[in-house]
């Protein structure tokens, strides 16, 4: 489904920013379960609750919602129960990891733990040189100084898939060779970009769809990067690792930016936004096209607290719980001295309510809304009706569309497109049977869009 959304979702006078960002206790300071016997007992007793009580409760809740709550997501019983179970499982897994079980997906890993994780997967990544703090330009350089960001000691791991995934050594790009760059989600807190991890399955789904197409312009290879998470390094370390990958593609492998499609889901979509903006500020050629799937485009919190926002409407049902969302946001912001002010910048919240968005410290007036996504690449946005970030997906589409219209560009489907579907947040990382028809259709539309946009 594609369409035009012409009006702003919210009025800027409705909101007031939080005056205080909590400083969460993250896993760096977590105690082992041997020193937390009651916590360990609770988590053990939670297992039968998770496997028995939660599915039964989800069934009863689905029946109640279908009968008495017309605004609830229009999901099948199987989809609803699975999403509910995954929601509780993710939260349980996070609690156990935070409590001392440093799992293979955890964000806060030492270099030794990183090596063990790779060995467990049985796959070794390529290693590229990190992006240096000295290379940063403003305003990112000032934020790096403010958060006391440090250069990565070592190399940045990246993984290839497709034709280049079988190469022992990467060669320079051929003429007209296209490439998909994928930045994985996870709230800047969890997961790995390794293809075996569920949160990185999106890249596999997209490449599989590309392979079945007859278009010669579709990428036959994809690459992703293991960027540092908020729990182990402050902002903008994650962006610096993504810039290291992009620099490697342009300078070492000689890829033409006009042959690159960059894609991100959830926090990965947020990173795509930041990378494109950094490219504009640093005079680095940006990718030809960008794909945003359930993107996190508003970290300042000016939308989510509104009583009629998708966040409030969908938080009882979405796989992304409001507790986990706020924990990710607060951890991302915890190193800034003035997070309420900093997070309003277009690097972090390009979809904040009008009259509050800033750029380089200057307020963007409502009459200047069309400048927020100025000179933006071709854009494809996927939003899910049951996603707590649904408003952020549609608002991003509307603002990109507005910017392209102001620049006099033809707003064809190849230039800017929106696909809306039934589903929870980031449904492509869920088990394959969840929202199967909707996912299949969305991937087909995405494939056709990329073929026509490159």
From TrEMBL:
Pfam families: Abhydrolase_3 (PF07859). InterPro entries: AB_hydrolase_3, AB_hydrolase_fold, GDXG_lipolytic_enzyme. It comes from the Eukaryota. The keyword Hydrolase applies. Residues 180-401 form the Alpha/beta hydrolase fold-3 domain. One of its GO terms (molecular function) is hydrolase activity. The chain crosses the membrane at residues 40-60, 72-94. Keywords: Hydrolase, Membrane, Transmembrane, Transmembrane helix. This is Alpha/beta-hydrolase. It comes from Meira miltonrushii. The lineage of its organism: Eukaryota, Fungi, Dikarya, Basidiomycota, Ustilaginomycotina.
């Amino acid at each position: 489904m594609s369409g035009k959304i012409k009006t702003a979702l919210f009025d800027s006078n409705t909101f007031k920013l939080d005056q205080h960002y909590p400083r969460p206790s993250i896993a760096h300071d977590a105690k082992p379960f041997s020193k937390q016997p009651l916590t360990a007992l609770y988590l053990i007793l939670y297992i039968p609750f998770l496997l028995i009580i939660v599915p039964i409760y989800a069934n009863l809740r689905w029946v109640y919602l279908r009968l008495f709550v017309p605004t609830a997501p229009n999901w099948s019983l199987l989809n609803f129960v699975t999403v509910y179970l995954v929601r509780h499982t993710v939260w349980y897994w996070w609690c156990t990891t935070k409590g001392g079980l440093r799992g293979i997906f955890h964000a806060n890993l030492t270099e030794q733990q990183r090596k063990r994780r790779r060995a467990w997967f049985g796959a070794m990544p390529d290693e590229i040189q990190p992006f240096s703090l000295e290379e940063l330009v403003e305003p990112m350089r000032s934020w790096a100084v403010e958060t006391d960001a440090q250069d990565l000691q070592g190399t940045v791991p990246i993984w290839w898939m497709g034709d280049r995934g079988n190469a022992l050594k990467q060669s320079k790009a051929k003429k007209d060779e296209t490439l998909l760059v994928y930045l994985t989600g996870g709230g800047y807190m969890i997961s790995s970009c390794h293809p075996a991890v569920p949160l990185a399955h999106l890249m596999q789904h997209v490449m599989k769809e590309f392979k079945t197409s007859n278009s010669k312009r579709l990428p036959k290879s994809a690459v992703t990067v293991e960027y540092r998470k908020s729990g182990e390094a402050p902002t903008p370390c994650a962006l610096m690792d993504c810039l290291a990958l992009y620099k490697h593609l342009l300078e070492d492998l000689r890829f033409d930016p006009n042959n690159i499609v960059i894609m991100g889901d959830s926090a990965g979509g947020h990173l795509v936004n930041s990378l494109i903006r950094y490219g504009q500020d640093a005079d680095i050629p940006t990718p030809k096209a960008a794909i945003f799937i359930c993107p996190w485009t508003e970290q300042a919190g000016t939308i989510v607290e509104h009583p009629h926002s998708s966040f409030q409407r969908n938080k009882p049902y979405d796989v992304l719980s409001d507790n986990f969302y706020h924990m990710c946001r607060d951890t991302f912001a915890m190193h800034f001295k003035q997070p309420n002010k900093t997070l309003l910048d277009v690097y972090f919240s390009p979809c904040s309510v009008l009259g509050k968005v800033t750029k380089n410290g200057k307020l963007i007036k409502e009459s200047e809304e069309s400048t927020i996504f100025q000179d933006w690449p071709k854009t494809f946005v996927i939003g899910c009706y049951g996603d707590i970030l649904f408003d952020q997906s549609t608002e991003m589409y509307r603002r990109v569309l507005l910017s392209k219209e102001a620049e006099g560009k033809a707003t064809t489907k190849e230039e800017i497109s929106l696909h809306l579907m039934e589903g929870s947040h980031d449904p492509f990382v869920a088990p394959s049977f969840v929202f199967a028809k909707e996912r299949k259709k969305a991937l087909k539309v995405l494939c056709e869009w990329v073929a026509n946009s490159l």
